[in-house]
Amino acid sequence: MTTLRTTISAVLCAGALAASAQEAAPEKAMDIYGFAMMDMGYNAGAIDPNWFDVMRPTKLPAFKDQWGAEGNMYFSVRQTRLGFKGYTPTALGELFTQFEFEMFGTGVDAGQTTIRLRHAYGQLGKWGAGQYWSPFMDIDVFPNSVEYWGPSGMAFFRNIQLRYMPIQGDTKLTIALERPGASSDQGSYGQFIDDQNVRGRLALPDLSAEYRKATGFGYVEAAGILRSAQWEDQNPDSINLDGSALCYGINLTSNIKYGPEKRNTVRVGLVYGAGIQNYMNDATTDIGVRANPGNASKPIEGYALPLTAGSLFVDHFWNEKMSSTVGGSITTITLDDSSDSSSFKTGTYALANVMFYPATNVMWGVEVQYGGRENFKDDWSYNAVKVQASFKYNFGTALYRKKNG
Asked: What is the pLDDT of residues 57-77, one digit of tens each?
């Protein structure tokens, strides 16, 4: 009997200690993460000097010798990144916050090594607000590459937004109101209207939504966007170029997992729409101009430029120390016959690489990149090839808080 009582007492005591330890166990308060990264390469072609370390078809020469001599060596640390994620308990559940920046200058800082904001975002329950991935894009179709900018034919945009997420998890539904008129490389809205005498008017937010369905092989996702584009003539006289257009887009994407432990991934995406170029990873103007015969007061009019784009990449892990990626992407813009003959029509992008992981948090990679540009109807096309080697060193730590104060 004494032995039984002693055993019961020990079990109860152990249970109490375990419960006490569980109550006292710390909880994560913050993640600090990032990486230092150096790129070096040789560009056998020519490109806009502000984009020397990426492969963007829209930045390739639109005519002979536009960007000078071919064949340039480059070094860059602009991919280097630092970020913070916070996890704060509240009466309404956990508050998630993220602040992240990198050193890749764009917009007025194009070509510079300077701070560029990536994420400034907070989420509580089903609501989120701040700068974050647009629901219209799918970051999971971005390939495992060392080239920074990525496939020209995928939607890619971090935008300021208010989002509602009624379904969360592997299967999810997101609806958002987004800042209108912004662009993926932080240019002004006026640059995305193909006439210097008109300026955009931002009267309504963009409306976007995504639905992802988890599957046994990965997932499938459908996203859409609606936008109101308006523009006003800055010099109205006998000719008035005021106008508007309803812009729209559909983005269908998927990840297909295969191989041992499903470590390998096929990433595929298809985008179709009009006036959504600023949501694309690499495209030109949203609004073009065309002839308007029979109207003396408005001989030309603006319209939303149709766009079709797609991408297909395969990420394959040979073993724990080595992986490869191969694939390509294309973007085509449909232009009116009255468009300038040197306007950007089609951009192609492809890459193949080998990456090595010699130690935890270390990656060394070598990649061959291809970019192509085709003009509308002046018979100009340009192809460029780059070879890039990159060295990436990750770092990170987690901070914890004690429960119950």
From this structure: 999 999 999 999 999 999 999
CA distances (Å), 165 to each of 92, 123, 135, 169, 252, in order? 15, 10, 10, 10, 19
Local structure of 49: helix, strand or coil: helix
- 328: CATH: 2.40.160
Name the residue range of residue 361's domain.
124-389
Q: Cα(144)–Cα(267) distance, rounded to whole angstroms?
A: 10
- In this prediction the pTM is 0.89
Structural domains in the chain (count): 1
Percent of all residues in the chain with a pLDDT value above 70, rounded to a whole number: 89
Mean pLDDT, residues 12-17: 54
DSSP 214: E
Decide if pLDDT at 398 tops 80. Answer: yes
Please enumerate in sequence order all residues whose Cβ is within 8 A of that of 229, keeping only pairs 6 or more positions apart, or say none: 200, 244, 245, 246, 247, 275, 286, 287, 304
100, 128, 90: which is closest to 31 by C-alpha? 100
Cα(236)–Cα(347) distance, rounded to whole angstroms? 35
Report CA torsion sign: 164, 210, 308, 349. positive
**Alpha helix locations (H) across 47-186?**
none
Report yes or no on 180 lying in a domain: yes
